Predict the 3D structure of the following.
Amino acid sequence: MHADRIIYHIKSIYTSEQVPPVKGKSMSLIKEIKDGFIAIKDGKIIGIGEGEGDSYIHSETELIDAHQMIMIPGLIDSHTHLVHGGSREYEYEKLQKGTPYLEILNQGGGILGTVMHTRNASFEELYHKAYHSLDLMMTYGVTTVESKSGYGLSFEHETKQLRVNQRLNDHHPIRVLSTYMGAHAVPKEYIGRKNEYMLSMMEDIKKIKDLELAEAVDVFCEEGVFSVDETNMILEHAKSLGYQIKMHADEIHPLGGAGLGVKLGCSSVDHLMAIKNVDIDLLAQSNTVANVLPGTSFYLKKGYAKAREMIDRGVALSIAGDYNPGSCPTENFQLIMQLASNQMKLTPEEVLTAVTINPAYHLGLSSSKGSLEVSKDADFVLLDIPNLTYMLYHFGINHTKDVYIKGKKVVSDQKVVKSL
Ligand code: NIG
Ligand code: FE
């Protein structure tokens, strides 16, 4: 087969070739192709290996010299609160002085502050703000993003957020997956009437399914937010309607959310800073992926999830950014990876598995994304570094040179390529 485009003189290509979910020790199995090439046709990979890919070349093939750069698969950020109004720097001092995150929420701030900003923002304002964040994420090598609602907390404003996701997916090169998270907090107008809010959410979950505005449902299972029983009720309902289900679990208090997530068949359980040991074993025996969010631990000055121990005990782990205005205000996904490496003590190979093939798996995309293999989408990042470890060692800066999505260059020399 003849390629539209071949990139050659790649110093090393690093990719997982494991069948996901990649668990425990297998997470360190990363293939390194030295002095390699990648051949692309119609946005898909048609050849990858050592050498210059001569057999894929014909007169029209565009040949791109990578000048000994490193290549990895496009990064997958599988947990973000991308679409929101405003920012929360007004809470920065409170957090610095040690006011607990949940106390700020209980005082009507935190998530509920962003709910107010998001309700007051127009569709266009939300769209342009999120589009800019996606551009920034892409310059760091991100090619797929999961984006949750949860700052509208009413049918009108939740669907406004979800429609922003839909339009971003149609107009931005990044693949955007949409998750409904009405169960992020109880909105002010329902305080003291949580059961009624639950009932209205159950109806909205059905309506949003009919409108095809979300592929997954997420719940913030936490003391003072949604209990284990309430989470169970919402997610059972969502599952019966054919949604993928997931959960913010055991973030602050060890309620056993991760164990419930395994029982329900969640695609991922996320955060897990306070996970119980018994639930680590349950996760290891399941296909539910533990999605850890080290940027949130860093920003909130909380302990990190026991990611090292989880991998050692056989869990499939992924790492996500959790970009949001309250607990992780950054689009720098490479910093998130560096925190996972430095603070959670994951190896470079484990980190790569955790931001490529494992998140592709729990987002339901692993047949087309998450690794550089023939027939998958040609989503990849060229990095100006000597080896994979260097990316995690030299922290806080952007190592990306170029980014490709479906075979098309979308970032060149760290700048977004604007299509005309
Ligand atoms: O994943 N924990 C709940 N939700 C978000 C934070 C949202 C916010 O503070 O605005 C999280 O950390
Ligand atoms: Fe989150």
Q: What stands out?
A: The longest helix spans residues 194-211. The mean pLDDT is 97.
